[in-house]
TrEMBL record:
Its cofactor is FAD; (6R)-5,10-methylene-5,6,7,8-tetrahydrofolate. It comes from Sphingomonas ginkgonis. This is Deoxyribodipyrimidine photo-lyase. SUPFAM superfamilies: Cryptochrome/photolyase FAD-binding domain, Cryptochrome/photolyase, N-terminal domain. Belongs to the DNA photolyase family.
């Protein structure tokens, strides 16, 4: 009998126990289901549709080269997987495990027909329990526990050949899914990316040569100091184990710790599947509502150069530097007092690396509502951050109307009377925003 491989956020053939297990057993077919129903509010966002299109194209071509096939279908995952199994006469479907609540629901629905394999993490997140047998809520102790099991196992090679069954079920045509962007002025910088397993490997090799300077440069948005591997990791074109072992022994511990955050956020959503929707420690904050402010934030017209640069980088390239994600998210939550979920959903739709666990956890951290969170009353000062992390060139790149200002003036052109015509006034002055946020926090505590 044939086996089916159900691909989701694991669009690779190497270091894929699910793929290896299916290929060993005889005729094998791959399946990707475009499912906008099971995830509900978290169905795949706009920027990731672009990525997905190219990644599926690459995976399909690679499978074909090796004698295999990738079928494309649309609908509710569990139903479609069952239907294709019946058409194929397959007894088993193999898949890599994922931790998003909607994927767990679909896995549960498939029950005994599904064989799950590792592949998305350094180590399965349930393997780690704190002293009282519960899950960890704080990263430090989690990392100490994980470290005892590091390095992770060596990655597996990709199968050399696939056997196709004599008859194949029908497949949709990728072009008919219309995943590529249609909005004008959006995604103009997406050509920096090379989705797919081969692109991920090239990118890994490039980064391996630079990882030594990671700790020094990772906080500087003007430099390419981080790996930019996040979309490849999200789509599973590169496994965390391949990444771990692909870096030389001298690779920076700071980098490995960052990668462990990705595992940790999976550990967290297992314990708290509603992380993207519900506050872990509710603050009872009275959020403002302002379509005008949200529009200014999302399109990079707040009058705060570092915030505007970040939001425009996101819009153009589908990615934003981590330091600037912190600054822009904090600006939305504290300066504008808007609900963090609005920001999280905007990121979801515009990031090529949008990831339910990482995104939700980081937004709750910034909003002061996560277990492992900074306190709400710490209000980040965007203009000081911009100076401290030497963001002048980054601003020049993304807010070209400020490009002629000096390194000293560019962070806060309004204060120096140097803002060019057409560059927006600050939505609210920093000091006033800080006072308003602190007052809202005091009111929330008394509520
Ligand atoms: P590197 O610094 O090279 O790190 C390597 C990998 O480690 C990353 O690719 C990522 O998989 C993981 N990692 C690094 N930092 C974190 C972190 N803080 N939390 C969890 N994993 C981490 N990351 C996402 O992958 N998807 C998201 O949707 C996402 N949303 C975020 C929202 C906010 C408000 C903030 C502050 C951060 C968010 N992050 C998210 C975390 C982080 O910003 C990105 O992972 C990182 O910027 C990706 O760039 P990189 O691959 O160059 O990172």
């Amino acid at each position: 009998p044939s086996s089916l491989i159900w691909f989701r956020q694991d669009l690779r053939l190497a270091d894929q126990p699910a793929v290896a297990a299916a290929a060993e057993r005889g005729p094998t077919v791959g399946l990707y289901v475009l499912d906008d129903e099971t995830p509900n509010d978290w169905s795949i966002g706009g920027a990731q549709r672009w990525w997905l299109h190219h990644s599926l194209e690459a995976l399909g071509a690679e499978l074909k080269k090796k004698g295999g096939t990738l079928l494309l279908r649309r609908g509710r995952s569990a139903e479609v997987v069952c239907a294709v199994m019946d058409e194929l006469g397959a007894e088993t479907v193999h898949a890599a495990r994922h931790y998003e609540p909607w994927w767990r629901a679909a896995e549960a629905e498939l029950g005994a027909r599904l064989t799950l394999h590792e592949g998305d993490v350094l180590h399965e997140p349930e393997a780690f329990r704190n002293g009282s047998g519960g899950s960890f809520k704080i990263f430090g102790p989690y990392y100490r526990a994980l470290s005892k099991d590091l390095p992770p196992p060596e990655p597996l090679p990709a199968p050399k050949r696939f056997n196709a069954p004599p008859e194949l079920p029908r497949s949709d045509r990728l072009a008919d899914w219309k995943l590529l962007p249609t909005r004008p002025n959006w995604a103009t910088g997406f050509d920096v990316w090379s989705p797919g397993e081969a692109g991920a490997q090239d990118h890994l090799h490039r980064f391996a040569a630079e990882v030594e300077t990671y700790a020094e440069r990772r906080d500087l948005p003007s430099e390419v100091g981080t790996s930019n591997l996040s979309p490849h990791l999200h789509f599973g074109e590169l496994s965390p184990r391949q990444l771990w072992h692909g870096l030389s022994d001298g690779a920076d511990d700071k980098f490995r710790r960052e990668l462990a955050w990705r595992d940790f956020s999976r550990h967290i959503i297992l314990a708290d599947p509603e992380l993207g929707n519900r506050e872990q420690r509710p603050l009872k904050l009275k959020h403002r509502r302002s379509d005008r402010d949200f529009a200014a934030w999302s399109r990079g017209r707040t009058g705060y150069p570092i915030v505007d640069a970040g939001m425009r980088q996101l819009w153009a390239t589908g990615w934003m530097h981590n330091r600037v994600r912190l600054i822009t998210a904090s600006f939305l939550v504290k300066h504008l007092l808007l609900d963090w979920r609005l920001g999280a959903h905007w990121f979801w739709d515009t990031l090529v690396d949008a990831d339910y666990a990482n995104n939700s956890q980081n937004w709750q951290w910034i909003a002061g509502t996560g277990f492992d969170s900074q306190p709400f009353y710490r209000v980040m000062a965007p203009l000081l951050q911009s100076e401290k992390f030497a963001a002048a060139d980054y601003i020049r790149r993304w807010v070209p109307e400020l490009a002629d200002l000096s390194d000293r003036d560019i962070h806060d052109p309004h204060a120096r009377g140097l803002a060019p015509a057409g560059y927006p006034e600050p939505l609210i002055p920093h000091r006033e925003a800080r006072e308003r946020a602190l007052q809202a926090f005091r009111d929330a505590r008394n509520r």
